[in-house]
Amino acid sequence: MLQEDIVVEVEKRLTTGKNAANRSRANDQIPAVLYGGGKDMETWSLQVPRKTLATLLNKGLHGNAIFKLNLKGTDQSRHVMIRDLTLDPVSRKMLHVDFFRVLLDRKLRVKSEIAIEGIPSGVKNAGGILNIVTHEILIECLPADIPESVKIDVSAMEIHDSFRIQDLKLGDKIKVLEKADRVLAHVGVPKAEEVVAAVAAVEGAEGAVAVPGSEPEVIKKGKKEEEGAEPAAAGAKAAPKAEKKEKK
Known about the structure:
With 248 residues, the chain is α+β, with helices and mostly antiparallel strands. It folds into 2 domains: 2-106, CATH 2.40.240.10; 110-206, Beta Complex (RNA Polymerase Alpha Subunit, Chain A, domain 2). It has helices at residues 18-26, 50-58, 121-124, 191-206, 231-234, and strands at 2-12, 29-35, 44-49, 66-71, 77-87, 94-101, 108-117, 129-132, 136-141, 150-153, 162-164, 175-176, 183-188. Strands 1-3-2-6-5-4 form a 6-stranded mixed β-barrel. A 4-stranded mixed sheet has the order 10-7-9-12. It has a 3-stranded antiparallel sheet with strand order 8-13-11, with no helix packed on it. β4 (66-71) and β5 (77-87) form a beta hairpin. The protein is elongated and about 65 Å long. The two termini are 29 Å apart. Residues 206-248 have low confidence and may be disordered.
């Protein structure tokens, strides 16, 4: 998702290492690095004002947002994504940020979140339960074509219906790098109803039988998948998801 209106001014760090990083933080600057964009691209050691970065994140910057970094005192500007943000495990203060360099004419692989739209007919009219099986998928496209999320309309889904990758209609600009039969969402029935249906089927065939388990189980929603893609594929996360050791 390209956001040309967001411009962040940074400056190069002349010294690196733990002590230098601590001095930067003491001066209200967050140590940073800029990398990626190809084998010939140089990695820069940078620092960005803490208040600038905090404001950017507090505005709800989307995880796959692409914006500009301007190098202070020069005319150099780069399109970037936030690849990683490290927080102090106790104080939760920002310690370090990784920027990934983006070339607008090269396709990226990123994780895009699944956004559910509508209420399934099977939920409204038949008492079903909507289970979100997959929370994000891997896609490939040009930076300007990265969607804020992949929206799926589940309104027409009935009991036992599944929405799969093959049901997505994202156009020619976005390629989905997942198996076609992968389930994104499913409409099921409450567990108690499944038990009653099973009892009725058995009774109809062989007479009444005892059903093990006195309490119906609760249907569990699908868990969110862990990310594990290459730097650009992972998608930048404006809000940190895990605490890491302090970077130098």
